[in-house]
Design brief:
The complex is a heterodimer. By secondary structure, chain A is α+β, with helices and mostly antiparallel strands. Helix content of chain A is 46%, strand content 20%. By secondary structure, chain B is mainly alpha-helical. Chain B has seven helices and no strands. The chains are: A alpha+beta, B mainly alpha.
């Protein structure tokens, strides 16, 4: 199965790979995994006092589509409010990357990673 | 007829593999194409279908993770879909570390040692989880079955780690 050009581009030149300091109170971490393929995805967001995402980093162990989905998401969420970021749908990601049906779960994983990170942020803020 | 009945073995998570294999071979012989060479096309087709079913059943019972999944499904346990995201953060953090460990092997000063160490860690953690799962399957209560599902999902991440480890080993010693 051939990957789309956009997937290949993100796979070969992933944006925003790396880690942020998880102990920084303004950094939220979302960890998700897919048992079906064993993919593991970590998405970290640095969020300002006004709820704007200033920086995003990811680290993903998985197939090309999983890496591309998480790379794309880090580009999309930067500069957005957490509410805007939380409304990103897996279908938007799948459409942008032209993912075939068997790789839709990679986009679901990326959407769930954003949600998990926002959840982590709310927990941290509540403390 | 369930898979255990098909092979005439006890319905239990602990399968005697040699008994399973010999029963499998006997069954496959009974549907071997040679035996149906002189029969109608329809009978030949049925024999081919049976052979495929026997093969599916054998592959399922032979593999401990597939066997666990089959037993839990037969019990009517509500299994989360394979596509559902797994969100156990501390488990996934640890998986990330194991992936990093795997990634660092080829840069290690002693590659053989690093490979052995990764193998040791992966298999001891796999063993611990699979023993927990086995006990939960044997207990067969609502709570233990749901715990077994959870452990089964975790074990799949280790299955993936082992595939990646094998691939790395092949690529390192392939030249």
């Amino acid at each position: 199965m051939a990957y789309s050009e956009k997937v290949l581009d993100h796979y070969e030149n992933p944006r925003n790979v790396g880690s942020l300091d998880k102990n920084d109170p303004s950094v939220a971490t979302g960890m998700v995994g897919a048992p079906a393929c064993g993919d593991v995805m970590k998405l970290q967001l640095k969020i300002s006092d006004t709820g704007i995402i200033e920086d995003a980093k990811f680290k993903t162990y998985g197939c090309g589509s999983a890496i591309a989905s998480s790379s794309l998401v880090t580009e999309w969420v930067k500069g957005k409010s957490i509410d805007e970021a939380g409304s990103i749908k897996n279908t938007d990601i799948a459409e942008e990357l032209a993912l075939p049906p068997v790789k839709i779960h990679c986009s679901i994983l990326a959407e769930d990673a954003i949600k998990a990170a926002i959840e982590d942020y709310k927990t941290k803020q509540g403390k | 007829m369930n898979y255990f009945q098909l092979f005439n073995i006890e319905e239990s998570f602990d399968v005697d593999i040699s008994q399973l294999s010999s029963s499998y071979q006997t069954l496959q012989k009974s549907v071997h194409p040679d035996k149906f060479a002189h029969t109608s096309e329809q009978e030949q087709r049925i024999a081919v279908q049976k052979s495929a079913q026997i093969n599916d059943a054998y592959q399922t019972l032979k593999n401990p993770l597939l066997r666990a999944e089959y037993i839990l499904t037969e019990r009517g346990v509500d299994m989360p879909s394979e596509q559902n995201t797994f969100g156990d953060t501390s488990f996934l953090m640890h998986q990330m570390e194991l992936r990093e460990m795997l990634e660092d092997i080829e840069h290690a000063s002693d590659v053989d040692q690093a490979l052995l160490e990764a193998q040791r860690v992966f298999s001891s953690e796999y063993l611990e989880l699979s023993q927990q799962m086995r006990a939960q399957i044997i207990e067969n209560s609502d709570a233990s079955n749901s715990g077994a599902c959870d452990n089964l999902r975790k074990l799949k991440f280790y299955q993936k780690l082992n595939i990646e480890l094998d691939r790395l080993e092949d690529s390192l010693f392939d030249d």
